[in-house]
Write a structure and sequence with these properties.
The chain is an all-alpha fold. 91% of the residues lie in helices and 0% in strands. The protein contains three helices and no strands. Helix 1 packs antiparallel against helix 2 (93-117) and helix 1 runs antiparallel to helix 3 (125-147). The two termini are 38 Å apart.
Length: 148
């Protein structure tokens, strides 16, 4: 074996191998980054879809709450009307306003009951499950790499 072969084997070959390993590492990091970005975009799309569905469910529950509050307000208003204007005008008007007040209070009770019976599921359950899965996979990968 000549001096040139010894120099090639000792100095040139390790440098070429190190350069190839470095390029493979850069390529691997680039692919990992691209995959992580694609995964984050998919999670964002899933969250957007779930938030859209949740907003429609919450809108219905909010409408029932507003209806109940609106009717309770008018029940309170007619109760005061019962005590002021109408009692002074007719002696039998109390029964008429009591019916009006009772109707509005019953409507308010119905609104609150409908509000309580309208159940809303968690806002983004599939996204939360996906994040839990991602976290457990990441923890497993970190354990594997720390044991290696």
């Amino acid at each position: 074996m000549g001096l040139i072969d010894k120099l090639k084997r000792t100095f040139v070959t390790p440098l070429v191998e190190e350069k190839e390993e470095g390029m493979a590492m850069v390529r691997s990091l680039r692919e990992t980054g691209t995959a992580a970005l694609a995964h984050a975009e998919a999670l964002a799309a899933l969250l957007k879809l779930e938030l859209k569905e949740a907003s429609s469910r919450l809108g219905k529950k909010t409408a029932f709450l507003l209806m109940g509050a609106f009717m309770a307000f008018f029940g309170y208003l007619f109760l005061w009307c019962l005590l002021t204007v109408v009692m002074a005008y007719f002696w039998g008007i109390i029964a008429g306003l009591a019916v009006t007040t009772g109707f509005h209070l019953l409507a308010a009770a119905a609104g609150f009951i409908l509000f309580n019976r309208t159940h809303v599921t968690p806002i983004a359950p599939a996204t939360a499950e996906e994040l839990k899965t991602d976290l457990s996979c990441l923890q497993m990968a970190l354990k594997k790499s720390s044991h290696s």
